């Protein structure tokens, strides 16, 4: 029997190997299909995982406590952005932020937002919103809603139906989050209306 040449290195390339090939993200068999080229991006976006609804049971609402009056001077004339006005040198009026932001102190609360579901309405994570419980919520208002003891911030939508009834649902201002349509067993309570977004730029 001829001995193996020690200078020859044997390789195991070729053939099917265990766990080789592209890994699938789905836990079931996949199929290949043809779609119009114009629909590729739309279908890819649809296949992306969607965030779950941002309803939560416990939130930290802080009541408003007006301790001091803060008068901030401002010019009587409006100023176009980027173009200073001579009126800035002649301040003749003041604005009190307490009166400007808070109309009903006893029914006003502050909530820190922890979701991006209202991003396109200018509300980001860690923004603080002012909520007034004394206001009647109207179509298009951003509200703090309570659905089956879970809180969510959404835009209130009221649509007239052909049967003279009104369909009420909550709109997320971020296409990655679902809108809220009430099921027959769910109860909706509008806890308060969002009147202001407190956002620091720096």
UniProtKB/TrEMBL annotation:
Region (Disordered): 1-26
Basic and acidic residues bias (residue ranges): 1-13
Keyword Transferase carried by entry: yes
A Pfam family per the record: Peptidase_S24
Alphabetized InterPro entries for the sequence: LexA-like, LexA/Signal_pep-like_sf, LexA_repressor, Peptidase_S24_S26A/B/C
Enzyme Commission code(s) on record: 2.7.7.7
Cell cycle as UniProt keyword: no
Residues covered by the Peptidase S24/S26A/S26B/S26C domain: 77-194
GO MF, any single term: DNA-directed DNA polymerase activity
Domain of life: Bacteria
PANTHER family membership: LEXA REPRESSOR, LEXA REPRESSOR-RELATED
Protein name: Translesion error-prone DNA polymerase V autoproteolytic subunit
Lineage summary: Bacteria, Pseudomonadati, Pseudomonadota, Gammaproteobacteria, Moraxellales
Gene expressing this chain: umuD
């Amino acid at each position: 029997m001829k001995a193996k040449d020690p200078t020859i290195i044997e390789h195991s390339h070729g053939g099917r190997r265990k766990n080789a090939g592209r890994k699938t993200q789905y836990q079931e068999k996949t199929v290949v299909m043809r779609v119009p080229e114009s629909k590729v991006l739309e279908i890819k976006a649809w296949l992306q995982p969607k965030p779950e609804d941002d309803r939560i049971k416990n939130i930290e609402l802080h009541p408003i406590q007006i301790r001091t009056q803060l008068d901030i001077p401002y010019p009587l004339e409006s100023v176009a952005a980027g173009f200073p006005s001579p009126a800035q040198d002649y301040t003749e009026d003041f604005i009190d932020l307490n009166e400007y932001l808070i109309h009903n102190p006893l029914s006003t609360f502050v909530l820190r937002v922890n979701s991006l579901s209202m991003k396109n309405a200018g509300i980001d994570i860690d923004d603080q919103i002012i909520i007034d419980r004394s206001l009647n919520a109207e179509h298009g208002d951003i509200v703090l809603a309570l659905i089956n003891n879970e809180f969510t911030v959404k835009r209130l939508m009221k649509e007239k139906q052909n049967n003279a009834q009104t369909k009420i649902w909550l709109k997320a201002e971020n296409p990655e989050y679902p809108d809220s349509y009430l099921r027959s067993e769910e109860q909706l309570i509008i806890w308060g209306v969002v009147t202001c977004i407190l956002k620091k730029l720096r």
